[in-house]
Amino acid sequence: MAVVEFETPRLKEYPVIPILQAGAMAHSQPFAAAAPIQKALGFPGELVEDWQEQAIAKMGELLGKYRSLKVYLDTCVHCGACSDKCHYFLGTGDPKNMPVARQDLMRKVYRRYFTFTGKYFPKLVGAEDLTREVLAEWYTYFNQCSECRRCSVFCPYGIDTAEITMAAREIMDSIGMGQKYSNEIIGKVHKIGNNLGLPGPALEDTLAGLEEDIKDATGADVKLPLDVQGAEVMLVTPSADFFSEPHVESLIGYAKVFHQAGISWTLSSHASEAGNFGLFIGNYEQMRSISMRVREAALELGVRRIAVGECGHAWRVAYSFWNTLIGPFDFLDQNYPVPQHICEVTYDLIRRGALTLDKAANDHRIVTFHDSCNVARGSSMGNMPRGQFIIPREIIRACVNNFHDMAPESIYESTFCCGGGGGLLTDDLIELRVKGALPRMEALKQVVDEHGVNFMATICAICKAQFGKVLPYYKFDMDMVGGVHQLVSSAIRLGAKQ
Amino acid sequence: MAFELNGNTYETDEEGYLVNLGDWSEDVAGFLAQQEKIDLTQNHWEVVNFLREYYNDYQIAPAVRVLTKAIGKKLGADKGNSKYLYELFPYGPAKQACKIAGLPKPTGCI
Amino acid sequence: MTVLTICYALVFYAATVLLVGGLAWKIADYARTPVPLKIPSTPAPPSTGGVALRMAREVVLFESLFKSSKWIWGLGWLFHVALALVLLRHLRYFTEPVWTVVALAQPFGLYAGFAMIAGLAGLWARRLLVERIRYISTPSDHLMLVLLIAIGVTGLGMKYVSHTDVVAVKAFMLGLMYFDWQPLPADPTLLVHLALVAALMAIFPVSKLLHAPGIFFSPTRNQADDSRERRHLAPWAEKLEKAKP
């Protein structure tokens, strides 16, 4: 494997805004999607001949379809409020990773082709033709944005760089410049049903193995049902929950919660993926057709409720977009929110006293919570203000004795991305991922030093995988990261309620 | 991309995973392991062989849990954990071992 | 009627047409462009009333900017509030009799002139001195500040250095509004001041000054957090739905 040598950033005592290092990440690009991957999604296999014309036409089309894009390309005043807010900038010092500079990569082209000043006074307003060099820069730097939306929190106009990154990726896909990681995964969802490409029989075998494990560990007959007709709840969870550590621990946690609450539930082999990489590539149709599997499965199985497992961007898509993309959900039980986050399910059960939780079972852990970007800034929970922050923490507090939040500027809506979101969780971007994790690692180090924190809980499959990978670069143990339902799984007492 | 071994040419993807699953042989595995700076011991082979068997049955590499359990059964309970697998394959058992076993790289949120 | 008066009269009509027409066209364009997905940056209010309140906090207090950087916020807010007061004060040249609120603002308006220039100077200093902001600045960003500062300086110049005949200026402005042109005093400071203001009006709809109407159309700020309760569907997305059930 071609490994680029790089230095892991040093953890500083206090976060410092880096000095600009122009071009520091100019070499970082993800692998391009090969022709078969592209064609499977209906994109051209390679860069089309009249790519410039087509790209500008696509930009025009998107400007007509997305008000966000049009308004955000017009309204920026270059005030700099966002300039020190991106984790990739903070970790790399590359000025093009400042959100405003990243947006400007598209804005300069927008101005050149779509505005009066850019057409007639390009130098004055920094407008530029869409040249090969500019296109290459797009591919480089729009694949260094995790669409985490932290910048948009601080922008006086709410300009959301994610909207611009998504548009750029959509334009690039449309002219044959796709990114391998995301597009290959979307292909697998269409073909096999989930991001991993886990076929039904493998899923069945894996779930059976997990039932055995739970039985061995607890003596209880906790089931992980698959494709059960007429179940009350269908759980849609990221396929990483079936495959990876520590993800699988949370899956076991969900199963124990349903078991103990006596709720009939099922997984679906048709909708065996909560994740939706259509979001990452900014493609509405892809996002819709991936989501549609959930609607189809729910109708097919005749379930009454849909719950979503621990996956950040999936929850944004589910919470904010499903009703639009695959609604209306009039065929489901209206007494529950549609869809429901697994944390909402568990939290309700805890409040109703339906679960017995033994905090002492987690006494070997000193826990903190990493808010995942898409949950924090693109969704909510529990029909209460700030529920997306309160509910996971309340669940943790119900399961552990030792909990400490990280620094206020690094949690809630100001949370830092793990560094691997938005379709960047791939080995070809490992340098970016390690460096982008810096702000979170600094905040983590603080609570490790002050409170001896040894477990960072999160509710996102990408966060878990990313931290599992990058924690060792910062001399932390890779097992430090885990799911909220992993804590639930440890604390929950199975069997008759005492 | 491609590499040559014993006069044959083998096609790989950007990251060195075999493109054609049928190209795999023990020699090829040895070569790929060398690229990863791994000396294949009997214990490595147990993992590689299990991966191939499982893939043959299910068209996917086994979940980490499934793998650790199987290895635990074969090599002893003390080796049935991901820590041991990481000792064998430092870059991650799923990804590195799959490469040596000639399987496609598992990707997703993992 | 002097050539000068005619020129300035025509320039102001043209600038007004560009400002009003351009903004109306831009606003209509924003309003017409669909919003296919619910993308409020959360936590967001669940109701329209809450959204109005959030928007008001953004527009009046610059809430998000305050969260970002106290320096930009302080300087930016100072400039904008001062500008608002200055504009309010200038209404006296367009109203007869002068509205009470304008009369009341009169004394503050003067200080506001200085505050405005101070704010602009601070913002420009940031643009020149802070490496990150310098990096993202285009020539137009600097020129915009120069233009605003020049307008402020010439305005204050007429008050404190070389007085201009404000009664005649008011007559000229009212004359423009009622299509009964009156002579414009040929005072150089005034002429520069007015020419710069006309330029500012003209470039408003084709420049970053679009942030003023833009913020009201920003989906991350103007959408309610009610996606699970209410189905939101853009016209083009609805068509897609009918095409592929």
The structure class of chain B reads mainly alpha
The CATH architecture category of chain B equals: Orthogonal Bundle
How many strand units of chain B? 2
CATH superfamily of chain C: Transmembrane di-heme cytochromes, Chain C
CATH topology of chain C: Fumarate Reductase Cytochrome B subunit
**Can you write the helix and strand succession of chain B as a string?**
EEHHHHH
CATH architecture verdict of chain C: Up-down Bundle
Share of helical residues of chain B: 40-55%
Radius of gyration of chain C, taken over Cα atoms and rounded to an integer in Å: 22 Å
Query: By helix and strand content of chain C, what is the structural category?
Result: mainly alpha
The end-to-end span of chain C amounts to 70 Å
The run of helices and strands of chain C is: HHHHHHHHHHHH
How many domains make up the coordinates of chain C? 1
* Oligomer class: heterotrimer
CATH topology of chain B: Arc Repressor Mutant, subunit A
Q: Strands, helices and their partners?
A:
The complex is a heterotrimer of chains A (498), B (110) and C (245).
Chain A: H1 35-40, H2 51-65, H3 67-75, H4 87-92, H5 99-114, H6 116-120, H7 122-125, H8 132-141, H9 150-154, H10 161-174, H11 180-191, H12 200-218, E1 233-236, H13 240-243, H14 247-261, E2 265-266, H15 284-301, E3 305-308, H16 312-326, E4 340-341, H17 342-351, E5 367-369, H18 373-378, H19 387-399, H20 430-436, H21 438-451, E6 455-458, H22 461-470, E7 481-483, H23 484-491
Parallel strand pairs in A: 1-2, 1-3, 3-4, 5-6, 6-7
Chain B: E1 2-5, E2 8-11, H1 26-35, H2 42-58, H3 64-75, H4 82-88, H5 93-100
Antiparallel strand pairs in B: 1-2
Helix pairs in contact in B: 2-3
Chain C: H1 3-32, H2 48-61, H3 63-68, H4 70-90, H5 100-129, H6 131-136, H7 139-160, H8 166-177, H9 188-203, H10 211-214, H11 219-222, H12 235-243
Helix pairs in contact in C: 1-9, 4-5, 5-7, 7-9
